[in-house]
Amino acid sequence: MFEVSGERLEKLVAMTDLNNDQALERFQHIIDRMGLEEALRQRGIRPGDLVRIKDFEFEYME
Prior knowledge:
Radius of gyration: 11 Å
Low-confidence stretches: none
CATH superfamily: GTP-binding protein OBG, C-terminal domain
Structural class: alpha+beta
Distance between the termini: 16 Å
Strand content: 15-25%
Helix content: 40-55%
Oligomer: single chain
Number of domains: 1
Order of helices and strands: EHHHEE
Shape: globular
Number of helices: 3
CATH architecture: 2-Layer Sandwich
């Protein structure tokens, strides 16, 4: 599991309706712009690995 923290990321998770597909797409776009995906790749993440931001967990997919 990859645990990611940071005030901006944690605030983003708290403000995102995680049950809404459009909100999740926006969330993905923002974390991509922040460089999170690239940082995880540099640390060896692979499809299927879990990522945790605060209380939110998701499976990484390319």
